[in-house]
Fold these 3 entries.
Entry 1:
Amino acid sequence: MTGKERFILTLQGKAVDRRPFVPILCMYGAKLIGVTLDRYYREPALYAAGQAAVVERFSVDALISPLFYSGEGEAFGSKLRFHEFMPPNIKKMAVSSAKDYIKLGFPDIETNPTLAYMRQSLRMTAKRCGNDVSVGGILSNPVDLPSLAMGIDGWIDALLFQKELLNEIFERTVEFFVSWGRALLSEGATFLVSSGGFLNSTTVTQEMVENTISPVLKKAYAAINAPIVIHDGGGSILPFLDVYKGLPNVVALYSASPKDNLQEARRLVGCDNTLVGGLDGPTLDKLGREDIYNRCRAILEDRKDDRFFMLGTSGPDIPLSTPPENILAMLQAVTEAGCM
């Protein structure tokens, strides 16, 4: 059974030879092919080569386009800082207020250089690996998107105190989300991964979710004719899993934080949505191989009767300092757990 078949069948709740293994290894490909991150996040051919190496080394069942939310910020005019051991982040926002954001020109999906890098990386990855594994396109949801151009503080201020501007902002961000999502699908993505950044327990209130965020996401996701996977973004989205499960086209949700109770997560998402659970990706380098193996076996034992479950990692990328043996320990646990 191929990884692609394994991934698709699990989304359908059907029998597979083993659980899908879906760690976040976007950046790790650079380590496997021996290139610097400043090149890896600018040259699509290198990204695709890195992802092919990830498949060969770790037998993953799905890949995604660059986990590079800051790149979307750059497309809107924010300035990036590149690092030796982590993905680029934003060093200067394009604007400082919601009023300035409204005046901001939105990037051309066809010609913007950063978006072109993401599209070409996805296209080349799908061409090299798409017959064997599922390949997804990752993008910020229309509620998260403004924070990449004006910063989190400025965006929260607008959400709380400048509500008269929100309709105009969301009209534009939904339009961009839909166009960008369709562009990623045209490049070979078979599913989309949407950020869950703002919809977590440390950022928003229940009132904001019900009256502001949920209606926007519902409108945006309904316009995408493709499966959508919700990525946790590094914060726990457990309190809002029941909100996400009711959104159009959402087929899978991350609840991979070790702090999240998988039984509670399953109760919230229902019995027929796929749940991704496992270990915290950014701290995988801090654990020993045996500890990782034992933790994964415990998770798989807990989910042994759950046909809609994949083993993965939460948060951003697994660090470059993570020994390959740590990732292989997760794969070993999945392989030994056997068929479902």
Entry 2:
Amino acid sequence: MNNPFLPLKPINKQEILKENGVFNKIILLLLPLLIYEVVDFVVLYFTVFGAKVLAENNETVSRILVEDSSYISVLSGILAIVAASIIFIPFIRREHPVLIAGKEPFNHVALTIALGITAAIFINCLFSLTGITTIGTVYEGIASRQMSLPIFVGIVFYGILTPFIEEIVYRLLFFRIALRELGTVAAFILSPLIFGLYHGNIPQALYGIVMGTLITWVYYRFGSFLYPYLFHACANIVIYIIMHNDALNSIVMKPYMIGIFGGLSLGMILYIGSLKASD
């Protein structure tokens, strides 16, 4: 296992001071988050403005705006992801010049995909059956808007594109900077915590913290950007498909599934943790 984190070496030493003050550390950590939020806000503003202008002379656009604003959110989100990805290129080159180091071992890729799927189902079952998903009204509204999209659109946006930019922000940039500036323990606490809180409601925050911890650990264990992205994308795609299909949802959301998928997840976590550098 060729892992660039073990041991972690400072990147671009000449650009980054060896001993950053507290203020500099905070700026370094928060800058990627702030950039993404600003880009997202600005793009949303101009997307809504442009849609309203078009709606004045186009009945189809007007109907979409009135009946379902989810499409505007998706369009805005896609544009924001593209814009932020371009802006983050110099940051990525500094923090992680090689995103994917050559051909990745098949067993590592397969384990990551499988763990992402089983962990997502386990946590969703647990949260659903224990009533965590009913805490507050914000999550229900968000879930309703997400499920209102055609399944293909939802998979592309929530399962492929959104994980890409979130993994750039929270793992590729935030986690690596925190690891270098604050140390391993602080990085492992802060990255999942901020990732969870970013979602803005209790159910998704708790889900984000748990899944964010696993994603961060997989990234740290294997070292390549491919792994957190695959984990996140596969988890989102599978849950979106399950939640979009009532029959499938009723089959999966059973108490015994907590044991099945929890056991599978634990087994894979233990196995990944036992892998040696030569595996």
Entry 3:
Amino acid sequence: MSMVYVRRTMPTRPPWPGRTHFREASRAAGRKGTARLRRASWPEDQRRDLLTCPSTFEGGVFALCEWASCYTPPMGEILIATSGYSYADWVGPVYPPGTDKRDFLPLYAERFPFTELNFSYYREPTAEGLRQIADKVPNTFRFVIKAHKSLTHERGPGWERAAERFLAALDGFKNEAPSTGAPGPDRLLGVLLQFPYSFHYDDANRRYLASVTDALKPARLFAEFRNDEWDRASVWNELEKRNVGLVIPDLPKLDGLPLTTPRLTSSYGYIRFHGRNTVNWWNGTNVTRYDYRYTQGELGDWLEPVKEMAAKAEAVIIAFNNHFAGQAIENAEEFMALLGRR
């Protein structure tokens, strides 16, 4: 029996889909026994798609499935997009002049695989509202939704009920076939808990973090800290125990802001590019603070760290939040191109 080398090429459930699909294909082909699969190096000039890859498996040509190809180093998805899509100043630089606001998301979905929803921070979402948003795009398009401010910035009595309402609203992302009502792929990529600089590392906030992440399960959760007090091993270990992904923010190098060291605390990595506008970071508005365009060199510095994360993760989510005048779009597409060339 020959050895066939496969890699994951699209999102699937862990640990490694090739084994299951190979066995299923083997049974369908009437072969006996279990195919052996190994992760090992394969010469660059011999990598080819398994749909046409000749195998010495009893002398035949073996078609595995469309999810596998001859071995390359295993790597999770790298999803690149922007934080939000509905900005008035994107009409012209991003969307054609005169584009109606209702058409922003469908146009955006033609270029990117997901987006971050920011409105949910300012007003509590509803299941019907999220369902209407999801219906505007193909069912392969996904969403990261930001937690409401009552769960991050304006915490107080009653936050548990706010968490219940927020969790119930996420049902709007459940995808069902219109004719049969059969469940389809979940449109929700994750929930982003973005904590402010004023969220200090102390006993009360540590207890709150544990409570709010428990309250929002079973949603996939990500935590972003804007204060470097949370840059410590005990926090990373606790997030890992709770299967909460740590968001790595790319920020200006200013005292008090967290480091940008790539790190995984769940099967999903997450990097958010906020820009490095040191002048406006503390005193600017929500627009001027993020007025920054990354250079090709600054983006290039992230290529190897992203690949290293993807080699260990099911997926790496990358969101550009330097949204002023469409700069996030430009940098996101530039980063895609850089990854494609390496």
